[in-house]
Each structure stands twice: as structure tokens, then as C-alpha cells.
Design a protein that fits this description.
500 residues; alpha+beta; Methane Monooxygenase Hydroxylase, Chain G, domain 1; 7-stranded mixed β-sheet; 24 helices; 51% helix
Length: 500
């Protein structure tokens, strides 16, 4: 498998067509690229697809080839839903295009070209950065295209945003500013060489050899966030970080370069890792490389935390009840549980320091404190003899309603079942989360008002009584609830209310 024999124009076009079809765009997506090429040609510009989409198309071709499929099988590109869904992950594509000349001018020309057949749903031009973001509608599906003028970049200080020089940069110069060689392979989408491979940094070779490699030794000093991206690509694609690149990470960490970037930028990169299919393997790699300690010295990720991550991931990715709980409590977010586990075990002052370093804010800090506090209280609650005596549903609800649902969930994630008592207690908690919190009276305030019961504490007491009886299976219909109210709370002779 040498040279470009695997990546002739026909095989690239076939692969792109299959991917576009799977996302629901079909042939019009390729036609859109050809239309962009026509407009760019009319103003003397060249245009090139570059970045993650190109990398993943190449890997897609390799995964589809019987000779290389087994080698690239672990690589996650264009994630699929079950076959019955018929499309890729219900996401929309995001393409990057490098523009010879002015991306701004190209965007303006596209908008005013009367022969351009595709609707622009959104267009944002950034003159200062020489970029334009366009969202095209194909059918009813958005296709996002980021256009950027060719440029060179200079980092005046570690961790600072680069100084951009748009000027008259050549395509080869633009390539050298990118993060990894595997993301620097491009497809021309110009009319004279449509879908021809452009590779000036041996990126294609690194893809074939499953290697993550930076361009130079100062790469991670210039932009420390590249460490997180290196890990993300390594694990998602099933590649390996190059030996020299690993050494450059080590040198950068020894120079404390992560201190040069804001907590917000670090959290943004961490959240991208947490979105991956198996976030625990990404955090495990951050731990091994020393990146977690580079964020905050006391952070670590051991086997116990890895097991907890797996339980969190399993719950949110496989459990049908996750969506129902999220509807019930909008503050339930997988990230809060992952972050709670990353910080778990820190002393109070260490938690303050870690939250402060990452600039997570008081709201998240308070959520973490509640989660930790409630998890400890539930551990104590497990000792209550009530839970050995087959408690009524209303008794379960009465005990657990005091705790935040996130704290209850975190108890389940954090504590592995070790014996029959643990198992039975977990079943009770799961019943509470899956069933009891969703049991509500069929009657409401309007029903009570129409029966002559005025609003106030009595109204709340009646609805709570009905809810408890319903939990215990003693009321099964709205009619039964109304009958209970009339019998217990209304004097039929006068329409007044009882005080008992």
C-alpha cells in the first residue's frame, strides 16, 4: 500500500458520495463543491478542502478496502446510527476550505452570483481574520462550510492566540501552521484538478502509518491545547502519537505551558474528550502523559475513576431512562458527573483551587458540593433498617426526596455493588428514579377549585396525599382520586371542607 493508488479521484469521489448520501445530502453536496469551485475560478482564486473531513475520507476509503479494513477498523470516522436509521449519527457536516486569495471576496461573490443554485441560510464574514462561515441548505439539511484565506501565523507568546498574516501566503505556507500532519492533507476542488490529493507534509504517509505527528518542536509550546487534540485523535482514530511528538509534549509540560492558557480553553478541550464514545480512555491517556497534573497538580485518574466513568457513560449512552430524567431535571448533564469524578477525593481547599483554575464558576462549584454531600448522606441512609423491611413506595419517596437527583445518580455511579445489601438498596434507588418521581396525581388545582376547595396549604396536602396513595397502588384512576377527595375532604351536605 504505497503511493496514491488508494486515493485516485474516482475512489475519493465515491467515498464522498457515500458519506454525503448517508448524511442525507446526496449528490447535491458534491454539486455544491463544484459550484463553489466555479465561483472561485471566476475571480481567480483556488479552493481546497482540508482538515478533519479530508483525513476521515481517506480513513473511510482504507476501512472500505478489504486489504486495509482490519488495520483501520478501530478508527471512528463518520459515526453511524443503527442501520435502520439510515444515516450518520443525525449530525450535520462541517467542511473546511482553504482559499487562495480572499475568503471574504469569495463569500460575497457566492452570495450575489445569480447562477449559484444553493440557498445560503447563514453567512458571517470576519474581515480581521480573513474567514467566512457559510451555512448552505441542501433540502432542509444545513451544510456548514468554513472558508479561510491562506495565511501564516506567528505565536509571540506561549498559549496566546497567534498573530495572523493573510498577505500573499502560498498553500504550502498555510499547511505549516496546522496542528498535525494528518490534518494537513487537502483535496483540490478546483475545476482543473477536482479532488486531486495535495500533500506537502507527508500527512498521507502518517495516516497510512497511523501516526500523530506535529510539524515542529515548539508546537505544544505555541499552542498547549494541541496536547488534548493529540490525545483525542490518537484514541478516536486508533493511531499512536509519534515518539518525537511525545517528547515535545513532555518538554512543554516541563515548562508548565498549560499555565499559559485559560481554564475556559482547557475545559472546552476536556468537554470534547468527554463527548467521545469511551471518555475514560481519553482521561487515562491524559493521566499517563502527565497532562492532568499539568492542569492541576492534585488531579489523577486511576482504575477506580475509570470504572466510574464507564458507569456514567453506560447510563447516558444506553439507558432509556436518561432522557426521561433529563426532561424531569434540566440540570442533569453527563459532564457534571464526569467532572465530579475527576475532582472526587480532593480536599475542600483543593476543590476550590481546581474549580478556580478551570474557571468553572460558582454555579458548578455549588453543584459539585451538593453532589458530594448528598452522596455521603445516601451512604449513611443505606444503613437505615427501613430498607431491609421491604418499604412502601411512599416511604422510599419520603426518604429520598430530600436529595438532589444528581447526588442520587452520583451515588450509583460512584459505589460499586459489593453484596446483596448493596444490590437491594440500588434497586430501591433505581425504582425511585425510574418510577416514583414520575407518579403524579391525575387531578389538579383546577379540579380542587371546581369542588369548592380554595387554594392554599390544604390544596397541596390533598395532592400530596393522593400522590402517596397512588405510589402505593391504592388509587389507580382520576375517578378514584375524585372519590377519595369527596369522601375525606368534602362535607357533601354543605360543600365545606374538613380540617382533619
Amino acid at each position: 500500500m504505497t503511493g496514491l493508488i488508494e486515493f485516485e479521484k474516482n475512489s475519493i469521489e465515491q467515498a464522498m458520495s457515500e458519506v454525503f448520501d448517508s448524511y442525507g445530502y446526496g449528490k447535491p453536496a458534491l454539486d455544491l463543491l463544484k459550484s463553489l469551485s466555479a465561483v472561485s475560478g471566476s475571480i481567480g482564486s483556488g479552493v481546497f478542502l482540508i482538515g478533519g473531513f479530508v483525513r476521515d475520507i481517506i480513513i473511510y476509503i482504507l476501512k472500505s478496502n478489504p486489504k486495509t479494513a482490519h488495520i483501520f477498523k478501530p478508527s471512528k470516522v463518520f459515526k453511524t446510527l443503527p442501520a435502520s436509521k439510515g444515516n450518520f449519527n443525525n449530525n450535520f457536516l462541517d467542511l473546511d476550505i482553504a482559499v487562495e486569495g480572499s475568503a471574504e471576496r469569495l463569500a460575497v461573490e457566492i452570495k450575489k452570483d445569480k447562477n449559484f443554485k444553493f440557498d445560503i441560510n447563514y453567512l458571517k464574514i470576519h474581515k480581521k481574520f480573513g474567514t467566512a462561515l457559510a451555512v448552505f441548505l441542501i433540502g432542509n439539511l444545513p451544510l456548514k462550510i468554513d472558508m479561510a484565506s491562506l495565511r501564516t501565523e506567528v505565536y509571540k507568546k506561549s498559549g496566546a492566540l497567534p498573530e495572523v498574516n493573510i498577505g500573499n501566503a502560498a498553500f504550502k505556507d498555510d499547511i505549516l501552521r496546522r496542528d498535525f500532519t494528518i490534518n494537513a492533507v487537502a483535496f483540490s476542488i478546483n475545476g482543473n484538478d477536482f479532488l486531486e490529493v495535495k500533500d506537502y507534509a507527508f500527512g498521507l504517509s502518517d495516516i497510512l502509518n497511523k501516526k500523530i505527528r506535529v510539524f515542529h518542536e515548539l508546537s505544544f509550546i505555541d499552542d498547549p491545547t494541541r496536547m488534548f487534540r493529540a490525545v483525542r485523535f490518537e484514541k478516536r482514530l486508533g493511531f499512536k502519537i509519534d515518539r518525537k511528538t511525545l517528547k515535545f509534549i513532555e518538554i512543554a509540560l516541563n515548562n508548565n505551558v498549560l499555565d499559559n492558557i485559560s481554564g475556559k480553553r482547557i475545559v472546552s478541550e476536556l468537554y470534547l474528550l468527554l463527548k467521545e464514545e469511551k471518555p475514560e480512555i481519553y482521561l487515562e491517556r491524559l493521566e499517563k502523559l502527565g497532562i492532568l497534573r499539568g492542569i492541576y497538580a492534585e488531579l489523577k485518574f486511576d482504575d477506580k475513576k475509570k470504572a466510574v466513568f464507564k458507569r456514567i457513560s453506560s447510563f447516558f449512552n444506553k439507558s432509556g431512562n436518561a432522557g426521561k430524567l433529563i426532561e424531569y431535571d434540566k440540570n442533569i448533564d453527563p459532564n457534571i458527573f464526569y467532572m465530579a469524578e475527576v475532582f472526587y477525593g480532593l480536599e475542600s481547599h483543593e476543590l476550590d483551587a481546581a474549580v478556580g483554575r478551570l474557571n468553572l464558576g460558582d454555579k458548578i462549584k455549588r453543584s459539585l458540593e451538593i453532589i458530594y454531600s448528598d452522596e455521603e448522606k445516601i451512604l449513611e441512609l443505606k444503613k437505615n433498617k427501613l430498607f431491609n423491611l421491604n418499604p412502601k413506595n411512599s416511604e422510599i419517596y419520603d426518604k429520598l426526596k430530600e436529595y438532589d437527583i444528581k447526588g442520587i445518580l452520583f451515588y450509583i455511579f460512584e459505589n460499586k455493588v459489593k453484596n446483596l445489601r448493596d444490590l437491594n438498596f440500588n434497586k430501591i434507588i433505581i425504582k425511585y428514579l425510574n418510577k416514583l418521581i414520575f407518579i403524579m396525581p391525575a387531578v389538579g388545582g383546577r379540579d380542587l377549585k371546581s369542588m369548592g376547595i380554595c387554594e392554599g396549604p390544604l390544596c397541596g396536602k390533598i395532592l400530596n396525599d393522593i400522590r402517596m396513595l397512588k405510589m402505593n397502588g391504592m388509587l389507580r384512576s382520576k375517578g378514584g382520586e375524585l372519590k377519595f377527595i369527596k369522601k375525606k375532604y368534602i362535607k357533601l351536605s354543605s360543600g365545606g371542607t374538613k380540617n382533619d
